[in-house]
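> @MW can you paste both from yesterday?
MW: sure, first one:
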Amino acid sequence: MIDRAAVEAVLNAIPDPATGRGLVEAGVVKGLTVAADRAGFVIEVPADRAAGYAPVRDAAEAALAAMPGMSRVSVILTSEAPPPARRASLSREAVDQGRPRAPVPTDRPAHVRRVLAVASGKGGVGKSTVAVNLSAAFARRGLVTGILDADVHGPSIPTMLGLSGQPEYRDGMMEPHRAHGLLAMSVGLLTKSDDAMIWRGPMASQALTQMLTQTRWGTAEKPLDILVVDLPPGTGDVQLTLIQKTPLDGVVIVSTPQEVALADARRAHTLFQRVNVPTLGLIENMTGDIFGRGGAKDEAARLVIDFLGDLPLDGSVREAADAGAPLAQGDIATRFDVTARALSEKLGL
């Protein structure tokens, strides 16, 4: 068992460049997590000093990795605010409600042909269930498919795919887990399953950036056809970070039929519309007697976007997801296959 006090002692042996004190004593170590054979934390520093802390991060990783019994180490370096150069690059038109919109995206991850976001304005509408089963449907079509769990504060993909254990590192890149024909990465694979991610927006954004750009999604010989990004609910920092870091080929919005969910779906569509990401369609999930039916179809017509179909509330889908084998069967699987075919055509796959 790795002792937390021993981890803190190792980190305090590394001096903070700004104060000369140990990293823990200097207060730059945030969210320290210590498990049986692993440790992870975030180094949070002002943006103008971030570059100088890269060697500190590397030293901390090396020191922790050298501890007896330590098998997994994750150290994330993040800054408190965007650097001035990034702020200066924002256009006047990119200011909405007092917050800057994302600047022009840089580039998609290496060897990834298409990036598709699955979003919802409201939590609890089954977005992750849709993302996983839609990814599986892409794979059944013969597409090399990856799924990125971008819900940093509430990662569910490891449970739904039956995954555990930190990813392996090779040549400075993380190797995604493989399950059910999919390549998968999640912050839930970098921490203990019951840890609370007490991270502010910049820390969550940095975690997403590292998973997006430092995961070996594909190779020149075998590129990834499509990366499905399971976004957290809402329209916040993680969504803007994704838009900033990679060109999105489209977004699918998931909603239940009732107005309280559709109102938030409307806001999600508005966000992506304002940053020129096409909404490829709206999916109605949990259709049935409890939540009603047809609300999302009507909303799609009002928004002038495609309606990609409805999915009934089915206990077998929930049971399979809880068991780590979330692949829908029968009629529901057919519905996902139809949706995947339509999206593949839209994306030119």
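MW: second:
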Amino acid sequence: MKVKNVLLMLLLALSAGCGKRTAELPQENSVYYWRTDWRLDSVALSFMDRYHISKVYCRYFDVVMADSLPMPNATIIFSEPVSAQLQIVPTVYITEDCMHQRHEGLARRIVNRILQINETNDVGGVSELQIDCDYTSRSRATYYDFLNEVRREAQKHGLRLSTTIRLHQLSMPVPPADYGVLMLYNTGDPRKFQQRNPVLDLRDVQPYLHRLADYALPLAAAYPVYRWQRTIYGVRIEHTVEASELLRVKKAVEKQRPSLSRSIITYHLDKENINRYKPEDYEAIYHH
């Protein structure tokens, strides 16, 4: 009888463990494109070819509050055609204050605007879209309702939905999306720049690592390759992330959640950023 009870407990434990698993994302290398003008120079094209990048999360426009209403801002212009070989993921950044209350029809207007931009600029083969928002506990419920509406609208057109996940959001229930992009940048407090790099520092990531294994949403990982410049009291401060620190973070998050090695994104595609790191560094970043 005792043996049967032990076997039953083992089966229940295995079943519970399987219930926590999430589907893995496909193995792919991607980039964010965060400019208001779509134009790929020879450096960008060579970079994408070298690291087998065919997926681009392209910022289409922002949504900001204006006169108490959420409005589109800084819409992208396509100065040149989009190659049919590229998989474009239209990405919309929405400010957190837009989610302090419900806005009827906002999800439908955003999806329709994305579709219109695709049609106007002959951007074909789009199979998903992404919403980026630094939501908080105050705005989470409204944001998740909004995502549900976006997802329903997107599904009408055969589109999947992804959303960004910041480290502090890992403690919240998972959002209603097909997958998330774990943003491993802007992890620190800019006011404490003298102690740590606010763009990325392993010490700022470590407190959240224990939440990764059981986070019940498929995740890709996005890493910073950009330079952040700002002026404080007349002194110009520049923040860049050493490749060694980025790779330390990559190793730490993949130790907790090995599937994060499958889908790697760098932020963002730019000649300066490409030249900032050595080819072997990018090889290591995109290594699966």
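> thanks! Residues 1-21 have pLDDT under 50 and may be disordered.
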